[in-house]
Design goal:
The chain contains 16 helices and 16 strands. The protein is of the alpha+beta class. The protein has 3 domains: about 290 residues, no CATH class; about 110 residues, no CATH class; about 60 residues, Orthogonal Bundle (Arc Repressor Mutant, subunit A). It has a 9-stranded mixed sheet with strand order 2-6-7-10-1-11-12-13-14. It has a 3-stranded antiparallel sheet with strand order 5-4-15, with no helix packed on it. It binds adenosine-5'-diphosphate (ADP), magnesium ion and zinc ion (ZN). Adenosine-5'-diphosphate (ADP) binds next to strand 1, strand 10 and strand 11.
Length: about 475
């Protein structure tokens, strides 16, 4: 029997507001534990939450970017459960009336095709605090840090439209790209600003009903989501193949062991006793406000990619790499203001620049060469002052200092030699010194041509203009 997987993801994204969702406390990451709290986010009796308008705006941005309907009337709800890092005993979330619903995103698969993934809903909620079980910090106890209590989150719930772990990965890549383009979340899964719970079931290929699903939690990278799903899909298939039944349960992914362990079964599942939050009025969003937010949306990744292909006449592949993040796309476009060979600019950004970012594990924001400086370097290739190889040497130099490329070329005497007379002299000398190779060449072994080019380049320390070298060599060798 052939099986296929059915996957739906629930993704939490921490919003980049300065203050929390229902109080004025700071959301800054990494502060002294419990220093960013107040009676509201500590859940003291008698306090009242006040909704952060910016958090609503951020959620609407994401709703619009994912083609959702934005509800003009939505409501907050209490989700009741006990946990040491949840002092109120309930989390304020949204339940039957979420802010955004019925949208979709188009994801890009490895073969270059696209697939549309439904978004069931996006709702606003508050984060809980953090329990620290690390023995190095807490010994045998558990410590509680409530700084994160009340940090605004959106939860993005996908339709069960994903069919493979690779599609789930591509979906997460797209979501991260969207939230970072929109500037509403830093998208860092390792630090927990993006969190993913994966729901997965399997069914025989061709079946149009869903199997029983399990939910896998605790993955802290996109790769781990992919690995965890692969593991769980195989496990479910094995259970069914051996005549067993899938039980609905929640599993915790253990990245070190590469396995998912049961955490709780359906019988132990929470009953959250949701009810409308009595301390907050319903959320009413005007059409005018939605229109204003829509008008202020930045150009989104797919549109930008398409524009790059049209405006700069670069391949779709290049445009995809260059628009992967907003910052990289900005960097590319800033260079195009200086250098007009757009494909060459693309080659350098995708090649040299990305190589250095990977090697140094840094973001483009911390890259030492400004787009203007790189543009000037590339112009030196364009106007034939230096060859591509010399440009790579100058590039390395520019990584180490703030010097302008022209100054480096000047100081190190790297400018290309295009003086025909000088090159002719060198060519003559090389021909004279290599009679055997000349004979071979003239006898039809034209492969030795490269050898001559190499000799001339060596004699000029790589500075001879290659086009002129080729031309003169051909002329002189053919006798
Ligand atoms: P629950 O009530 O258990 O939270 P929901 O209907 O709210 O379930 O769906 C939660 C997530 O699970 C959604 O992302 C949805 O796409 C996904 N999902 C629902 N049913 C299945 C299934 N049979 N297999 C895989 N994923 C599913
Ligand atoms: Mg759910
Ligand atoms: Zn507070």
């Amino acid at each position: 029997m052939q099986y296929e997987a059915v996957i739906g993801l629930e993704v939490h994204a921490q919003l980049l507001t300065d203050s929390k969702i229902f109080c004025g406390c700071s959301t800054r990451f990494g502060a002294e534990p419990n220093s960013q709290t107040c009676p509201v986010c500590l859940g003291m009796p008698g306090v009242l939450p006040v909704l952060n308008e910016r958090a609503v705006e951020f959620a609407i941005r994401m709703g619009l970017a994912t083609n959702c309907s934005i509800a003009s009337f939505s409501r907050f709800a209490r989700k009741n459960y006990f946990y040491p890092d949840l002092p109120k005993g309930y989390q304020i979330s949204q339940y039957e009336l979420p802010l955004c619903s019925n949208g979709y995103v188009d994801i890009e698969l490895e073969d270059g095709t696209e697939k549309r993934i439904g978004i069931i809903r996006i709702h606003l909620e508050e984060d809980a605090g953090k329990s620290i079980h690390d023995p190095a910090l807490a010994g045998e106890d558990t410590l509680v840090d409530l700084n994160r209590c009340g940090v605004p989150l959106i939860e993005i719930v996908s339709a069960p439209d994903l069919r493979t772990p690779q599609e789930a990965y591509a979906y997460l890549v797209r979501l991260k790209q969207l939230v970072t383009y929109l500037g509403i979340c830093d998208g860092n899964m390792e630090e927990g600003s993006l969190r993913c719970d994966a729901n997965v079931s399997v069914r025989p290929v061709g079946s149009d009903t869903f199997g029983v699903k399990t939910e896998v939690k605790n993955m802290n990278s996109f790769r781990n989501v992919e690995r965890a799903l692969t593991y769980e899909i195989n496990r479910q298939i094995q259970v069914l193949e051996s005549g067993g039944k899938i039980v609905q349960e929640t599993l915790l992914w253990d990245a070190n062991e590469g396995i998912a362990r049961p955490m709780r079964s359906k019988e132990e599942a929470h009953d959250y006793r949701y009810f409308p939050e009595p301390d907050l009025v319903p959320l009413e969003v005007s059409e005018a406000w939605i229109e204003k937010i829509k008008a202020d949306l930045p150009e989104l990744p797919r549109a930008r990619k398409k524009r790059f292909v049209e405006q700069y006449k670069i391949p779709v592949y290049d445009a995809g790499v260059l628009t992967m993040t907003r910052e990289l796309a900005d960097y590319y476009e800033a260079i195009t203001q200086v250098c007009s060979d757009f494909k060459m600019v693309s080659n350098w950004v995708m090649g040299e620049v990305l190589r250095v970012l990977n090697e140094r594990k840094i973001d483009i924001a911390d890259f030492p060469i400004s787009p203007e400086r790189l543009g000037k370097l590339l112009n030196l290739i364009l106007n034939k002052t230096i060859s591509i190889n010399i440009a790579k040497t100058v590039f390395e130099e520019m990584l180490q200092s703030d010097a302008e490329p022209e100054a480096i070329v000047e100081e190190k005497g790297l400018a290309q030699v295009s003086d025909r007379g000088l090159i002719e002299e060198i060519v003559d000398k090389v021909i004279q010194e290599n009679p055997k190779q000349v004979e071979q060449y003239r006898g039809g072994k034209t492969k030795v041509f490269g050898y001559f080019v190499g000799q001339v380049m060596r004699a000029t320390r790589g500075k001879a203009n290659p086009a002129i070298v080729n031309e003169i060599l051909k002329e002189k060798l053919s006798g």
